[in-house]
């Protein structure tokens, strides 16, 4: 056993912390939130829901890029297992400032009456701190997007928006700015010393490999291991279902999976690049994907979530699947034997079932660029516009001739069946027909026939059917407005 | 006025503010959890705790038999057991209590408990309970005029049913309690509660000890909204039982899902209404039957129902009105107080009636409202016989119609709707009139304890609790202003039953009104004692003329004689001298709201000390195909009298309004056929996010409208603005109605979720 076995190291505010999971008797699936709250100095971070939906536990994690520049991103600490922050700097509300020495975002929140009961406030402070560090004079949309993942039940939010407008005006300058070089050096040193993490306690195994090869070898050895590629879904099994996860392979430390490449006919995304980064990249090329990602979870969730995780979980209501299917995206799977490609439209085989083999990992997603004559749109209907799971979602694609005849049509729905599914009858009907309101209204009836949705907490079946029909009409309307 | 921010703001933003779960306790403190019923209705046949008890790290697994005192924790009616005995009546009802060394062991113990039930049919809807005649308490009635006669001569009558949904409080801090057993029977309870005296009462009752043994302390809550008025009792009682049994400190805190599943919510209502009106839309009579879902136990239901009944007329004069109130028992958690306390549910019926009259007569709804407003000098009596004095409705109406540009925007909305098929806009203006005082008259009392230390600083205790509303900030301001000293020379202590006894809950928006007055009373007593001593001192020092006690004034950190202004002494020196002169520098204060009474049997009286008023205009845009609404603009003008702290009051108005918007739009509770709540976490229970507030949000406080006879001429503000959200709700209905050009009355309810909106649109299109 090497001397670094079971050890994770990170910076907590400005101090280096080392945890020996075996010796300290800590479960590797302890969340960052739980860990912080057990220390007497970090009671500022709060648990509001334990599922990443309220933001009270928001912390900032600073990490360096390929140019050795530190970036500050907000995350919900209830969704991150402790080993995942190995080699990173975690910043807490206490590290940002104290009552006798407040950070600009903190004094702005005080001055604008941004807190009432104060329980959500440390989380807002942290989201605003990340915004402060990364943006100069952000627009209102950018502010709202940065704070969507934080719920407040008291203020009605207006003063919080005002605080962000007031404070984010100093190019991110603060007491962290001067230490950035030293921080990067410290983090580099930690990762050099312990490039990949192996934790084996009595009940659990947790691996944080540094390369795809390492990960594939682990997958071979532990074929039943749970894969974390963001973990915003997996973490709930611990926080909510109180499960003891016995084997985990955490891919979030693999830098070679965090890339985006613009090739001539397609764009290729590593399965580990976070969806917030994807969102920014695809804004012009894949607007339907951009639209969907803009209402996907919250910034905290998108900073963590990946294509790998979102597609790998094969959720019937996952937001990315319908739009990727409309774009006819391709998944690249890799095992020690090599790589293979699978059409996104074929990938899912049943409720949370996929074509992936036990020894394989999703390593990339390729999205072919579309012809200018084609229209791709995505729609998501949820009870609340933002930070909500789809009631019904869709990805639509249309190619029509100069004479307005449908040459290709793809109508993918999420939330209407056990898997993301196409409306086969409506597609068949529309193919070769003229793209008119009359034909759309006929096709709407076939959408209705294609699905037998369920009633659940989000909506009844009847409304789901109305939604599915109406989205086709909305697509038609948007297609003729363009 | 100098801006004064929330007294805890700098601790909130830095994470230094201490909530109960943040208190440092050592490893001897045990972790308490509940074992709860998985079925909504049934008998407990048998159970076996032996395997769970044998687990290492388990310190106690208790049943109702282990309760030292009474197995009873109902706040008013004693129909709520602490732990189930032989039957269970809702999913989430506590059966066993577990104390363990950590959470993991406690969870493991839960898995090892074996229990068998005989399942019985649960009652899960108001309709089903009505069918079975399961009234939880006798019905209530308020009646005025003669409705039968009025309906006979009516030109128009409408009649229908309105479903009004419940609401989860969603305070950010879930229910929490921490108990330390002491020597003898002593116990100290830290509770996140709006009602420390009731925690004291319940804990003493379940432990079978007297109140003098129980000290309850609370610094702040991470939100309350009514959800910690009586619901905090339970977790405090459970924790206290475990602490006494194990002789160790015990802490209990609910995980979010547990909190949402177990605790009571805003009462859902079914309103059956019938209204008579003439061709101008003037209402002559209303007959309304309010049926509410009490849940499995009474809790505060009857007071909530009473307030719903007293707000059934909202801001309108209804000469002939009958309001019947029924509360029905179901096998669901016991519903409880929530901001507005029945007022919103009662008003929803009234606002629906107005809206329907407008559609039927094709007259703008705002105009119908104006025509029916309570009058200034006449037509100003409520159905329960109280005259509405200092009516601000017309002031508000004049001003908000101008500032919101209502008339022009009405035209623009109609023009927009004529041009667009798939997007419709809606606009609505609604008023509120909300009665201030507990309708249970004896609760309208408050106490305070003020210490002046001989260094010139002041420590204030009072019976109110801080839940974010800024009560302690206002109390600090009141004490500083009344003493004429610097704001920072005053500190407000935690709320503690050992310092101020027999207090009322911080509820009914009355926190500042009552506790502010009690603090003022204590300050007045202290000032008169200091004045007496200082006048004497001035008279010894100045033989020429006498300083009279009544001429001694406290201002700018100074105590002086207003007739001889050169006779002055700093507050600090005055206090120090008084101390040396053996003057008592500590005093209690007391206040009782004058003149409030209500005769429940007759349904008449003057239950309210005064009314708070407000008005709002909302404009929304509806995507007809998806049911999504976009909140374009809100204008609010709200009456807070002369504000003690305008920024804090504005915060209350905005926050209450958005919480109300949540209630009428996205916040929805669904149950399955077995009584399981489906929306038990923020994943599926959607409160407003930062993206859901109006794009243009104009909030103003009504100026030049001082409130006579209250603390610094201010008005209560906690609850009333919640109901301003009716304008948002009815703006959505206006947009739906525009789909068929306002020809058909859409089916509508609270909440207007995208699902309910789409179903309504589908129905009117098929009509």
Descriptive terms for the model:
heterodimer; A: 482 residues; alpha+beta; Ubiquitin-like (UB roll); DNA polymerase, domain 1; Enolase-like, domain 1; 3 domains; 5-stranded mixed sheet; 5-stranded antiparallel sheet; 18 helices; 33% helix; B: 767 residues; Aldehyde Oxidoreductase, domain 4; 8-stranded mixed sheet; 29 strands; globular
If you had to describe this structure to a student in words, what would you say it looks like?
The complex is a heterodimer of chains A (482) and B (767). Chain A is an alpha+beta fold and 482 residues long. Chain A folds into 3 domains: 7-93 and 177-253, Roll (Ubiquitin-like (UB roll)); 104-167, DNA polymerase, domain 1, CATH 1.10.150.120; 258-481, CO dehydrogenase flavoprotein, C-terminal domain (Enolase-like, domain 1, 2-Layer Sandwich). Chain A is 33% helix and 22% strand. Chain A is built from 18 helices and 20 strands. In chain A, strand 3 and strand 4 form a beta hairpin. In chain A, helix 10 packs across helix 11 and helix 17 (437-450) runs antiparallel to helix 18. The longest helix of chain A has 21 residues, at 461-481. Chain A starts with 6 loop residues before the first strand and ends with a helix. The model of chain A has no long low-confidence stretch (mean pLDDT 96). Chain B is of the alpha+beta class and 767 residues long. Chain B has 3 domains: 25-121 and 169-262, Aldehyde oxidase/xanthine dehydrogenase, molybdopterin binding domain (Aldehyde Oxidoreductase, domain 4, 2-Layer Sandwich), CATH 3.30.365.10; 269-439 and 600-766, Aldehyde oxidase/xanthine dehydrogenase, molybdopterin binding domain (Aldehyde Oxidoreductase, domain 4, 2-Layer Sandwich); 445-592, 2-Layer Sandwich (Aldehyde Oxidoreductase, domain 4), CATH 3.30.365.10. Helices cover 30% and strands 24% of the residues of chain B. An 8-stranded mixed beta sheet of chain B has the order 3-5-1-12-9-10-11-20, sandwiched between helices. A 5-stranded mixed beta sheet of chain B has the order 7-15-14-13-8. Chain B has a 4-stranded mixed beta sheet with strand order 16-27-28-29, with helices on both faces. In chain B, helix 6 (196-207) packs across helix 7, helix 14 runs parallel beside helix 15 (511-541) and helix 18 (726-738) runs parallel beside helix 19 (754-766). At the A-B interface, helix 2, helix 3, helix 4, helix 6 and helix 18 of A face helix 1, helix 17 and helix 19 of B.
